[in-house]
Design brief:
Strand order of the largest sheet: 4-10-9-8-7-5-6
Radius of gyration: 22 Å
Shape: globular
Largest sheet: 7 strands, mixed
Helix content: 40-55%
Bound molecules: pyridoxal-5'-phosphate
Length: 461
C-alpha cells in the first residue's frame, strides 16, 4: 500500500471519533465501545477482511453467518448493477410483480423440500419470523380454529430482534428490555447437553428436552397452540447441536398433535450443513422455513418464508386478503443478488463440497483442539462449530463469568488474524462455504495460538 501509515492512523482516529459521536451500534455496550474504539473494516476478498490499518483477518464467521459464497464476487456486483439500471424498485403489492422476484420464488421452491412450493419475501430474518407469527395465526383463523394462537419456542433460541422476533427468541437479556416476550409466546428447555445435561447421557437428555414440547402442548391444550418454532441447531445461542435423539422425538410429537412447525433456517439454509436446507439434513418436514442471511450471502439484505403447500393452500385460497407485507418484500435488486448467489452455489457445487470435502476436513482439524487443556468440547456439523472453554476438562467446570475467558480468547484471535465469535465461554465459527483446506489449516493454527494465550491469561487470574 502506498498510503503512508501516519495518514491512515489519522483517518482511523477521525472515523472512530465520528463513530463514537453519531453511531448507535446494534447489540453493543456503547460506553464500553467508545472506550475501546471500533474496529473499522475497509475491504474484503474471499474469506479475508482488511481493517483500515491494513491488518488482514480470516473471517471465520462469514460476516454474521451470512457470506456463504465469500467476499468479492464480481458477478453479484454485476447482477445488482444491471437490475438497478433496469428496475431499481417496484413493489409486489396491488396486483404487481416483477421478473427477479418471480424467478427467485420459483428457484427457491425448486431447492426447498418437495412439499414446499411458495415463498413470502421480506427484508430480514426478523421480518420473516414476524411474518411466521402472523401467518400461522391467520392459518388457524381460516381453518376455523381461532383459539390456536400460542407459539412454543425454546430458551436461548435466536429468532431476530423485532418485537415478535425477540419474543419468539429465548434470550433472557433481550426479554429484560421492553417487557418481552409478548403474550402468546412460551419457551421450553433447550437441548444443550454440554451446558445443561448434567448426569444424563446425550441421548437421554435429548429425549427429555424434546418431551418438554409434548408436556407444554398438553399443559396449554392442543386447541390453543398454533406452532412450534426452532432452529435446526441454535446459532447465536452458541452452536448448540441437539443430541441424536432430539429431532426424531420432536417429529413424533409433531405428528401426534395438530400444530404447525416453523424451522428457522436463517443460518442453516443455503448450504451450511452440506444440504441446501437443514430440514433435509435432520429429515424434518416443516410447515414454514425462515430464510435470510445466506440467501443473498449478505451482499444486500433479504429474507423470506418458504411456505408448505398445506399452509399456502389455505393462505392463498379465495378468502380475502392476508393483511401483511413490506415495502421491500421481493425487492428486485435483492432478488437479483439472491439469484446470482444461488447460481454461484450451484455452479461451484458448494453444497456438495461442504458435505463431502470441507466439512469433514474442518471438523477433523478442529478435533485437534479438543486436546487443548482449556477445551471441554469441540462440536460441529457442516461448516459450523463450537469450542467450549472450561476451567476443568474432566468435571466440565466453567470459568466464573467475571474471568471473561471467551472475550479474552476472541480478542486474542483478532490479534493473531482470526475472527471467531464468543458466546460467553463458547467460541464459535461459521466460515464462508468457499473456505479451502489451507485456509482451514490457518484458521486452526491461529485458534490454537489464541487458546494458548487464553490459557496463560486464565492462569494469571
Ligand atoms: C440472524 C438470525 C435471525 C434474524 O435475522 P435478521 O436478518 O438479523 O433480522 C433470525 N433467526 C436466526 C436463526 C438468525 O440467526
Amino acid at each position: 500500500m502506498s498510503t503512508p501509515l501516519v495518514s491512515q492512523q489519522q483517518k482511523l482516529d477521525n472515523l472512530q471519533a465520528a463513530d463514537k459521536q453519531h453511531f448507535i451500534h446494534p447489540f453493543t455496550d456503547s460506553k464500553g465501545l467508545a472506550e475501546k474504539g471500533t474496529r473499522i473494516i475497509e475491504r474484503a476478498e474471499g474469506v479475508y477482511l482488511w481493517d483500515i490499518m491494513g491488518h488482514k483477518l480470516l473471517d471465520a464467521m462469514a460476516g454474521l453467518w451470512c457470506v456463504n459464497v465469500g467476499y468479492g464476487r464480481q458477478s453479484i456486483v454485476d447482477a445488482v448493477a444491471k437490475q438497478m439500471q433496469q428496475l431499481p424498485f417496484y413493489n409486489s403489492f396491488f396486483q404487481c410483480s416483477h421478473p427477479p422476484a418471480i424467478e427467485l420464488a420459483q428457484k427457491i421452491a425448486s431447492l426447498a423440500p418437495a412439499h414446499m412450493n411458495n415463498v413470502f419475501f421480506t427484508g430480514s430474518g426478523s421480518e420473516s419470523n414476524d411474518t411466521n407469527l402472523r401467518m400461522v395465526r391467520r392459518y388457524w383463523d381460516l381453518k376455523g380454529k381461532p383459539s390456536k394462537k400460542t407459539i412454543i419456542s425454546r430458551v436461548n433460541a435466536y429468532h431476530g430482534s423485532t418485537v415478535a422476533g425477540a419474543s419468539l427468541g429465548g434470550m433472557s437479556g433481550m426479554h429484560e428490555q421492553g417487557d418481552l416476550p409478548i403474550p402468546g409466546v412460551v419457551h421450553i428447555a433447550q437441548p444443550y447437553w454440554y451446558g445443561e445435561g448434567k448426569g444424563l447421557t446425550p441421548e437421554a437428555f435429548g429425549l427429555q428436552t424434546a418431551q418438554a414440547l409434548e408436556a407444554k402442548i398438553l399443559e396449554l391444550g392442543e386447541d390453543n397452540v398454533a406452532a412450534f418454532i426452532a432452529e435446526p441447531f441454535q446459532g447465536a445461542g452458541g452452536v448448540i447441536i441437539p443430541p441424536s435423539t432430539y429431532w426424531p422425538e420432536i417429529k413424533r410429537i409433531l405428528a401426534k398433535y395438530d400444530i404447525l412447525f416453523i424451522l428457522d433456517e436463517v443460518i442453516s439454509g443455503f448450504g451450511r450443513t452440506g444440504k441446501w436446507f437443514a430440514a433435509e439434513y435432520f429429515d424434518l418436514q416443516p410447515d414454514l422455513i425462515t430464510i435470510a442471511k445466506g440467501m443473498t450471502s449478505g451482499y444486500v439484505p433479504m429474507g423470506g418464508v418458504i411456505v408448505s403447500d398445506r399452509v399456502a393452500d389455505v393462505i392463498k385460497q379465495d378468502c380475502g386478503e392476508f393483511t401483511h407485507g413490506f415495502t421491500y418484500s421481493g425487492h428486485p435488486v435483492a432478488a437479483a443478488a439472491a439469484l446470482e448467489n444461488i447460481r454461484i452455489i450451484e455452479q461451484e457445487q458448494l453444497v456438495e463440497r461442504v458435505a463431502t470435502d470441507t466439512s469433514p476436513y474442518l471438523q477433523s482439524a478442529l478435533q485437534q483442539l479438543a486436546e487443548h487443556p482449556l477445551v471441554g468440547e469441540v462440536r460441529g456439523i457442516g461448516l459450523v462449530a463450537a469450542i467450549e472453554l472450561v476451567q476443568n476438562k474432566t468435571t466440565h467446570q466453567r470459568f466464573d463469568s467475571s474471568v471473561g475467558a471467551g472475550t479474552f480468547c476472541r480478542d486474542a484471535c483478532i490479534k493473531h488474524g482470526l475472527v471467531m465469535r464468543s458466546v460467553g465461554d463458547t467460541m464459535i465459527i461459521s466460515p464462508p462455504l468457499t473456505i479451502s483446506h489451507s485456509e482451514i489449516d490457518a484458521l486452526v493454527a491461529m485458534a490454537t495460538q489464541a487458546l494458548n494465550d487464553t490459557e496463560q491469561f486464565v492462569q494469571g487470574k
